[in-house]
Design brief:
Layout: H1 3-13, E1 20-21, H2 22-29, H3 33-45, E2 50-52, E3 55-57, H4 72-75, H5 80-92, E4 99-102, H6 106-109, E5 121-124, H7 127-136, E6 140-142, E7 147-149, E8 154-156, E9 169-174, E10 178-180, E11 183-186, H8 189-199, E12 202-208, E13 220-223, E14 230-234, H9 239-247, E15 251-256, E16 259-263
Helix pairs in contact: 1-3
């Protein structure tokens, strides 16, 4: 194989992973280890890659795979007043000492402020929720193992047998990409995989969504309306949505400034 072809293959390989070893380059090109080491040295000198012990890496390493949907930092700027009211009503459902699960999201993140004066056992896959509660409350905080997805600030585990399976919760609190007749919708299959595991560990599922989420749709359905026990939203909830939830026997709590309006299904 010509030197130019080998260089092209090596440069292509380092775009796919953080580091490519000499042995991997040998397998890809069918040449000797000594030849590959010379190729890496040449490309390093030409500033087309960075030579490292045992192999090479890209000058700009490929980013870690992200999740579909808008970043956490952007979502934090949307509907903040409504999210704070919704979160306050969510925390009001909890009794001290209870085990609860809080899924990552910007609405659920607002629960950290009323939780500052509480003492609960909290399992969360949200890095900012865990960090805030550790610094500013006396709640017991647990997180599942896994990778932290920076833009969404969520911890997701690829392993089926992580510590999630050993935690029981009275309630799980979660947000969603959207909520409609088909149920709760999410934007990414990885989120659905992680959230299904968490939902299975809770007796009661409480969904926190501002009223804008009733217009959002996705091709991915996390669970049917019948699996939801409580929906907490703001006073912008349309009558059609209230009727839809009532028909599915989902309890609706409408958080308003100064008070909360509750409806009991069934």
């Amino acid at each position: 194989m010509h030197e130019t072809e080998r260089h092209r293959i090596i440069l292509s390989a380092i775009q796919e992973r953080p580091i490519v070893t000499v042995a991997e380059c040998v397998a890809l090109t069918g040449t000797s280890e000594a030849t590959i080491r010379r190729d890496i040295a040449t490309l390093h000198k030409a500033k087309r890659l960075r030579r490292v012990r045992g192999g090479a890496e890209a000058l700009t390493p490929p980013p870690l795979p992200g999740l579909a949907g808008r970043p956490f930092a952007y979502n934090q700027t949307l509907h903040m007043d409504q999210k704070q009211l919704i979160a306050r009503e969510a925390v009001a459902l909890c009794d001290d000492g209870e085990p609860i699960i809080i899924n990552g999201g910007t609405t659920t993140f607002q629960m950290v402020h009323p939780l500052a004066n509480r003492r609960l056992q909290v399992l969360t896959n949200s890095f900012p929720i865990a960090e805030h509660l550790l610094k500013n409350s006396k709640n017991t905080v647990m997180v599942p193992g896994g990778a932290i997805y920076r833009e969404q600030n969520i911890i997701l585990s690829p392993f089926e047998n992580d510590m999630t399976r050993h935690f029981y919760a009275r309630r799980m609190f979660m947000g969603a990409h959207g909520l409609g007749p088909m149920g709760l919708m999410e934007a990414d299959p990885l989120l659905i995989q992680a959230e299904e595991k968490l939902i299975d560990q809770a007796d009661e599922l409480v969904v926190l969504v501002d009223s804008s989420k009733f217009d959002n749709r996705s091709s991915l359905v996390l669970c049917a309306l019948e699996r939801i026990d409580v929906v907490i939203t703001d006073d912008g909830v349309p009558d059609r949505v209230a009727s839809m939830l009532e028909a599915a026997e989902v309890r609706l709590i409408v958080a308003e400034a100064g008070r909360a309006r509750k409806t009991d299904a069934g």
